[in-house]
Design a protein that fits this description.
This protein has 14 helices and no strands. With about 325 residues, the protein is an all-alpha fold. α3 runs antiparallel to α10 and α7 crosses α9. The longest helix has about 35 residues.
């Protein structure tokens, strides 16, 4: 019970974080700017968010390829919204993967294989970000743009490349790693064999997914890219709506990069959804280009659509999904 109240307290603090950070940055000026934000533009941002949910739902359908039973767009959308709610409501997004495994297990898809599907999905995201960062690094090196924090951009690109390389090496060498003696001493013969079978089953599922027809893989990556291009345009629209009331020109590529770096920093936050770290990171990266009051207002609008809306719309879907599948047998 104590843990539940503690988690609710952290979630409440995460919900208030954008307002607290914005008040710290801009004070009354930020609140006045938020009140003057164009309603049609805010509605457009909401529509883009809903479209992003549907793009990810279509990606789940292609990744699963009928292996978890019949999964229509409505069912995939319910899974997507439930997973995103859990992702936003737990520190470090730890609840997202667990919710995905649970929902697929209720459909008869074993957790080890579901983990492989989730890993492919996350790797697709990492690959897209690596490509985008490489393009942005190339733009800074050729002098096409003059952005601050060039070293940070290069370090982020290198870090993503190393993560992708590490995942590839683990996938290729997993059978060899399982045969190594340090693995054999833990956690006992019976559990060791079961754990090894689960890992190898997940590896087979991952390989089978990567061997889908090239057109399907291209569609998955295309949906992934379109989703992130749209979702990471939300900050640009927020900035555009703010500076439209008086300010400098907005740069879509820079706001895209700001969100990538801020979301990476938010993984170190102990609050759900990376609250606090995300707002401070975005605010710090936008301050050289905008007034403090404008930055604060843009952060609030951006988090309202990219975080609070996920919680508000995802909560009932999450509860319905958990209640619906609670009585069904879980695949082992």
């Amino acid at each position: 019970m104590t843990w539940r109240w503690r988690h609710l307290g952290l979630l409440l603090l995460a919900l208030l974080a954008p307002l607290l950070v914005s008040w710290w940055l801009g004070g009354h000026e930020a609140l006045a700017t938020i009140g003057a934000f164009p309603g049609p533009l805010l509605a457009l941002m909401g529509i883009i968010t809903v479209l992003c949910w549907n793009l990810n739902a279509a990606r789940w359908r292609l990744l699963l390829s009928g292996r978890a039973g019949h999964l229509g767009q409505d069912g995939a959308l319910a899974i997507e919204m439930a997973v995103k709610f859990a992702l936003c409501a737990t520190p470090g997004g730890s609840g997202g993967a667990a919710t995905f495994l649970l929902l697929l297990a209720r459909r008869g898809f074993p957790p080890a294989r579901a983990t492989a599907i989730y890993l492919v999905d996350q790797s697709c995201d990492l690959l897209f970000f690596a490509v985008m960062l490489s393009l942005l690094v190339a733009a800074t090196l050729t002098g096409a743009v003059d952005w601050p924090h060039r070293t940070l951009i290069g370090a982020a690109s290198l870090g993503l490349g190393l993560v992708l390389l590490g995942l590839g090496l683990i996938l290729a060498w997993l059978p060899w790693l399982l045969r190594r003696r340090p693995w054999l001493a833990w956690p006992g013969p019976r559990r060791r064999r079961r754990f090894a079978r689960q890992l190898l089953s997940g590896r087979r599922t991952l390989i089978a997914t990567l061997r889908l027809p090239p057109s399907v893989l291209a569609s998955i990556f295309g949906l992934c890219g379109l989703h992130w291009l749209l979702r990471y345009s939300l900050l640009y629209l927020a900035v555009l709506g703010i500076i439209g009331q008086g300010g400098t020109l907005a740069d879509w590529a820079w706001t895209f990069l700001v969100q990538m770096l801020a979301m990476a920093a938010s993984q170190f936050s102990v609050l759900p959804g990376g609250a606090g770290a995300a707002e401070i990171s975005v605010g710090a990266l936008l301050l050289p280009l905008m007034e403090p009051g404008q930055v604060a207002a843009a952060v609030v609008i951006w988090r309202l659509v990219s975080y609070h809306l996920y919680l508000l719309a995802g909560a009932p879907v999450f509860l319905i999904q958990v209640a619906r599948w609670l009585g069904r047998p879980v695949a082992s």
